[in-house]
Every structure is written in structure tokens, then in C-alpha cells.
Amino acid sequence: MKKLIVASRNKGKLKEISEILKDFYEVESMDEAGFAVDIEENGKTFYENSLIKARTVSLALRCDALADDSGLCVDTLGGAPGIYSARYGGIHGDDKNNRKVLLENLEGVTDRSAKFVSSVVIHTSDGRIIEGYGETTGKIATEEIGENGFGYDNIFISDDLGKSFGIASDEEKNSVSHRYRALKNLLEQL
């Protein structure tokens, strides 16, 4: 099975990608592969950020590398937090504070429609770029529901599942998630 290095330190994201791609690739994190440099995500879109990460790891390690840039886009907030989802509350990776700030910003708002978006890119060792895109729709709850997942999962009520990703099983979430759809779209390109 071919090895694929994932340009991420996010354990939740790595777990999902590994589960979804387990029949196609041997997935390894960039840290496991010996890449410990922080990558500046200074793109203006999900695609640009995923390409920056995949290309950086691929060129440094001379390998096939995959990156995912994803986030939550809330309609009434003009698509925010969008590409700033991981640092919406001010500190990168502080999921609890990110959720708190989002819920505060939606206080009293009736239109809570939202979508998760994922852009995935593989940058191959020979310089090819393969991309996939996926999204899943839902709405933002008024409070946290469940403990599963990571990020905004326990305040996102999936249209497909009719419940929060925070109470969905890994199998349920991975069958309808934005990341699953992006990776499925990417595999169709291969």
C-alpha cells in the first residue's frame, strides 16, 4: 500500500483521514515522517491553504503529501469563521473558545444555517497536484450537544444525520462529512 504523509498535527483530522483512506493509503502524520516545522497558512481560500501545506511537506520530504484545509461557514455571518475556523476565538486550536465565541456571535439569531467545507490536495513527489472538494450542510445549535468529534462538531447539527456531529458515531460522521466528501472527490480524480 502506498504511503501518504498528511500535513497536519490535528489528531482529530488525522484520525478521520486515516479511517476514510485506510483501504487506499498507509497514512502517516508529518510529525511521524520527521517534519516538525510549522507551516504558515497565509492563503485566502481553503484550497490555497491546503496546497501550501501539501506542497511544503511534499517538497521537504520528497514524498506524496496530503493536506486538508477545512472550516465552518455560517451564512448569517457572511461565511465566517471560514478559513479562520481554527483561530476564530483568538487562539489557534482552542476549540472550546472558538465554539463559545461563535455561539455568542449567534445569540438571538434565528437563521443558523451553516456548512462545513473541506479542500484536500495531494502534492505528489513528482510535482502533480490532485484536489478534492466537499461540503456538508446543517445548522448551528444554541448549545453544545455531545462529546464526540472535535472543533465545532458538537454545535453543528447535520442536515444528513438530523443530529449533532457531537453525538454521531465516527462511522456516521465519516459517511456524510465534508472531509469524507472531499476525499471521495479526490479519489475519483486518481
**C-alpha termini separation:** 15 Å
Question: Beta-strand level of the residues, as a percent range?
Answer: 15-25%
Envelope shape:
globular
- Structural class, judged by helices and strands? alpha/beta
Please give the CATH class: Alpha Beta
Radius of gyration: 16 Å
For the largest beta-sheet, the strand count, sense and barrel status come to: 6 strands, mixed
> In the residues, how many domains can be counted?
1
Order of helices and strands: EHEHEHEEEHH
Across the major sheet, the strand order is 2-1-3-4-5-6
Explain how this protein is built:
- The protein is of the alpha/beta class and 190 residues long.
- The chain has one domain (3-189): Alpha-Beta Complex (Maf protein), CATH 3.90.950.
- The protein has helices spanning 11-21, 46-61, 95-105, 170-176, 178-189; strands at residues 3-6, 26-29, 65-74, 113-123, 129-140, 156-158.
- The longest helix is centred in the N-terminal third of the chain and has 16 residues, at 46-61.
- The two termini are 15 Å apart.
